[in-house]
Amino acid sequence: MAEQAQFEELARQLSAVGAVKRDLARILPHDCPAGSAAVLTLLGRYGSMRMSKLAELLAVDMSVTSRHVAHVAERGWIERSPDPADKRSRILHLTPAGEATLRDLSRRSTELLTERLGGWSDEEVDQLIRLMTRLRDSFDCRTGPVRPSATGPAEPAPGSPKAAAAATVASAARAPTIAPVLEPTTRTPA
């Protein structure tokens, strides 16, 4: 077990993560705040889903989710279609414009991370991903099962918060999305 002084230093270092998040937030387009980017990121990662599932994945209240969804819908980045299984519910889908915006967000985060972490080796980035995933799992009370991967170390089961943590950190390293800005707690949508 780590020493008390190590935990104190870790607490100081974790407080500095805010600077990383602020830099990632600065790269967002003016019309795409972090909440909107989170909606696009989750729809891009998990596909179409109900608003209730999106609220769960964002780990925010339904009213907050509704505001984020309204913002992206106004910009034509998503469509809201009736749910065939429950006409009172809506299914959210990325539009081609939303997919283009998501690609732009990915490009922006990739460029920033490449600039800031360009001197890091692949092994160092992989180690950061593993350790941040483990850290996130230690704080997430809804941890799901881990499934083995044929291509390497165990991968989180889709739909588990471990998958969300891995996606968040992997996104930071490889930047297919801007998840580090968003830090959604995710599960696989129904």
State the major sheet. 3 strands, antiparallel
Order of strands in the sheet with most strands: 1-3-2
Number of strands: 5
Rg, Cα atoms, Å: 17 Å
Q: What fraction of residues sit in β-strands?
A: 5-15%
Mean pLDDT: 79
Structure, briefly:
By secondary structure, this protein is α+β, with helices and mostly antiparallel strands. Helices cover 60% and strands 14% of the residues.
Description:
The longest helix is centred in the middle third of the chain and has 22 residues, at 96-117. This protein is 60% helix and 14% strand. A hairpin with a 2-residue loop joins strand 2 (78-83) and strand 3 (86-94). A 3-stranded antiparallel beta sheet has the order 1-3-2. It starts with a helix and ends in an 8-residue tail after the last helix. It has 9 helices and 5 strands; from the N terminus they run H-H-H-E-H-H-E-E-H-H-E-E-H-H. By secondary structure, the chain is of the alpha+beta class. The chain is globular and about 55 Å long.
